[in-house]
Amino acid sequence: MEMKQRCWLVAEDPAAAEQLEAKIDSIGWKVRRLSPPLFSSRLEEDRECGVGLVLLDGMADARLAQLEAMLLESHCPWMVVAADDAVEDASRRQLVATLCHAVVAPTIDLAELDCLMRHALPLSLLRSGDSRPCHREAALSADMAEYEMVGTSPVMRSLFQVIRKVAAVEAPILIGGESGTGKELTAQAIHERSPRASSSFHAINCGALPDHLIQSELFGHEKGAFTGAVHRKIGRIEAADGGTLFLDEIGDLPLELQVNLLRFLETQSIQRVGGLEEIRVDVRIIAATHVDLEAAIEEGRFREDLYHRLNVLHVRVPALREHPDDIEVMARYFFDRFSGEKSARLKGFSREALVVMRQYAWPGNIRELINRIRRAMVMCEKRLIQPRDLGIERRKIVRHSMTLDQARERAEREALVAALERNESRVRPAARELGVSHVTIYRLMEKHDISHPGVEAEG
Ligand SMILES: Nc1ncnc2c1ncn2[C@@H]1O[C@H](COP(=O)(O)OP(=O)(O)OP(=O)(O)O)[C@@H](O)[C@H]1O
């Protein structure tokens, strides 16, 4: 038997409510009636209701303040059932215009009403701080809860799949991707899924430390090893014993330290600066880079042997512009996350803001998205965030717009990822679906840097 969808029905007049309830029930909805007094806490009585109806005809003026407070707290989209003249009064008009999703006449065709209500349902999930689009599978929401990584597009789903796979093995990992795409978050997610999860995760940014400090920071030093070394210091590698060490901006590691790191990866032991003792340390290294390390090798800035040692497993984190379908979901997620900093009046994003966010190229990726949303939440003086609050002007969008070639590349990548995902990463069925040979699929996977489910082993 099919489960009935549930909806709220708010009405002042019990007889009118009963009549409307019978009609809505006849089109397959289970009605939860709310009769005055209307307190927001009553919305807790049934969290399954995904949409609400308000019968405005016959509602007393004195009730409007209660109704407004309740609608403000509610995550549901609300529809007003009212005759034309019921919304002529200015305060009623204001309430309906700002807090309701639709206005329908009491004489509306029931099939039409059913259709409107069903279409409004997904809004309640989007607004509830639960950034899951309602029709995604449960597995996906579990992914997000696990890593606090938001994303439901094929590329992000494929990233979640890779994270799970590489977490289970012990080898070093190299994470590639532009700045602000979520490389550190990915490393953390891998750690949390790995057998080392109960031990610590240490992160160090190789680009942020002066050259003369990095060595003792990573490997530690003995007392008296150099001027100023008044105590023995345990380095980050040793401190991470049993856990995971995340080395961000690995391309910035000075060449002489690259040798030491390589030695550690080969022997699993370190020597503190000024010490002779070989200390065995059990640490999993995850490195990340936003620069092309192969180019750095060509230029003599990065050791090829270290590159192969680190790049045993490779994970690529996509740029935000490669998964524009996630932008709205992420925007709402961050809006909810920072909602403590906003004015009570601010309710969300205008349609125009959502459109420009989708078109913008996001050179700073998710970090930029977060910063622009936080700023907009402070700057916005209206109920809904506008493009100018985000500081995204049309001009910028045009400048970053794609060429036809870029658009083709993107579409090709997206089609490939989606087909592999639909076929559980099996290449031959994906090839059949896309009407190409399996050799072409392998070529395209290499071209677009898409990991094979087995995760490519190098070095
Ligand atoms: N999928 C995601 N869902 C939610 N938040 C995310 C996601 N990816 C990244 N973030 C957030 O975006 C910000 C930037 O992410 P992170 O620091 O992991 O990026 P990065 O690639 O390591 O950046 P950099 O290259 O500059 O070191 C962080 O606040 C992170 O929590």
UniProtKB/TrEMBL annotation:
InterPro entries (alphabetical): AAA+_ATPase, AAA_lid_NorR, Homeodomain-like_sf, HTH_TyrR, P-loop_NTPase, Sigma_54_int, Sigma_54_int_dom_ATP-bd_2, Sigma_54_int_dom_CS
UniProt keyword list: Aromatic hydrocarbons catabolism, ATP-binding, DNA-binding, Nucleotide-binding, Transcription, Transcription regulation
One Pfam short name: AAA_lid_14
> Entry's SUPFAM superfamilies?
Homeodomain-like (SSF46689), P-loop containing nucleoside triphosphate hydrolases (SSF52540)
Gene3D superfamilies, sorted: 1.10.8.60, Homeodomain-like, P-loop containing nucleotide triphosphate hydrolases
Can you provide one Gene Ontology molecular function annotated for this UniProt record? DNA binding
Task: Report which superkingdom the organism of origin falls in.
Answer: Bacteria
| GO terms for biological process, alphabetical | regulation of DNA-templated transcription
Say yes or no: keyword Hydrolase present: no
PROSITE patterns recorded for this chain?
SIGMA54_INTERACT_2, SIGMA54_INTERACT_3, SIGMA54_INTERACT_4
- Sigma-54 factor interaction domain span: 149-378
Hey, what's the signal peptide range on this chain? none
Q: Which PANTHER family match?
A: TRANSCRIPTIONAL REGULATOR-RELATED, TRANSCRIPTIONAL REGULATORY PROTEIN
Provide the protein name: HTH-type transcriptional regulatory protein TyrR
The protein's organism comes out as Halomonas fontilapidosi
